[in-house]
Design goal:
The structure is a homotetramer of 137-residue chains. With 137 residues, chain A is of the alpha+beta class. The first copy, chain A, is built from 4 helices and 5 strands. The model of chain A has no long low-confidence stretch (mean pLDDT 94).
């Protein structure tokens, strides 16, 4: 992390009042933290729009009794082997599993991996969280 | 609009540098305008999450040759008559029309109107833009 | 519009039951209409991801008393003149206007126009609805 | 999982052709799988809109050198102790960590936990993946 810069900005007074109320409700310790949060989200969105190297998490929901599904999930990951950092598995109930795969790499590749996992026979749901490697924030 | 307040905030220097570059690329005249834009978006999102009185636009794409479709679109609007302010119609080609319906009212009601229009037989696409009456910004 | 094809698909019985209940609640007249709706949304999303020629609506909220804002909104539109088909204006209250601009063209250009309008000094909110020219649906 | 039902639906032939092409490109083994995928997404979206018991994953990006950040992240989780199933931690580089928290519970509670983690001082990014416990799919 880097040094801190102090800047001044001008805002409409009633907008500022509403933003302060919202930030307090959301639990931000200071106005600077609340604005930093908005700026971070905006920069992460831009990283994905620009197709840069990003990080993400792919969340899968499936019934592990489905024939061959574990094998197929691993196979697809190996097709994109350099993207996957690690994964975590939770037993939601007797049938349903959640698997969380942490990935880092070129945006298009991550989207293809997500698409490949979505299309595995028997997959119930597959969501991609778009976040950042943190390097630029 | 109200008076203007000048505030100071502290940001990590490298984040500020990246945000300034992005804001310039996006065409914001000043840093204050760029941050105001983020705050406005955040407040509008909150208005929708809280189910407040909001404004929106519903965009429909359909083939006007589809039997009875114009009649049905008008009928659904009349079921929610107090929501609709006005609407606009554009001929995209010989078959396809876009219709834009400007609405204002309680969030849940607007979502129901959007759902009702989405379900009209022959509707190709129906999108809801979530925005604000502007009163609180 | 084209001819109709009848296809058979296999679904888990309990998923089908839940989908039928949801479709009924959403007002779809038939199961075919409800599934067509999902397919249309998926195809439109793909058109935008592929950067094809698409249609959209840009919804602006602003206070028309803001100095020069009407002029600037028109100026930005003229920079992308071939995208704009028509626009519609509603008076939400004494201060606030909603403007709805119907656009058609290459996806990246539409996003740039939306960005340009978002950055106009005094703009309260600017949303882009992503839809289709209807030709491919 | 339950028994399988075979149903027939009617689709515009040209839409079907485009959908088949897209499904093939996305890697779905059959038309039934591709349509099931759309139905699942629609049902999960509805579960979240209805505020039901759902599952999710919260992905955090932060610099673990930030004073007290690990302690605060754990504290917030304990405030919502019954939601968290487990969590996973990956070292993205010398400074940046990704943490993935698997949660299950009432939708509003999950959103509050996400909000609380977003507001922790020093948090770079916090995303919520909305998925399902799998029971209803």
């Amino acid at each position: 992390m880097s040094s801190i810069t102090r800047i001044s900005i001008s805002l409409a007074s009633d907008v500022l009042e509403k933003f302060d109320a919202l930030s307090k409700e959301q639990g931000f310790p200071t106005r600077s933290e609340a604005i930093t949060h908005l700026i971070h989200s905006s920069l992460v969105q831009q990283q994905w729009a620009d197709g840069k190297v990003v990080a993400g998490a792919i969340t899968l929901i499936y019934d592990h009794h489905k024939s061959q599904i574990l094998q197929k999930i691993v196979d697809v990951q190996h097709d994109f082997g350099n993207l996957v950092i690690c994964s975590q598995h939770a037993h939601l109930d007797r049938h349903n599993c959640m698997e969380n795969i942490i990935v880092r790499g070129e945006m298009r590749q991550i989207q293809k991996l997500h698409q490949g996992l979505s299309a595995v026979k028997g997959m119930k749901h597959a969501v991609l969280s778009m976040t950042t490697t943190g390097k630029d924030l």
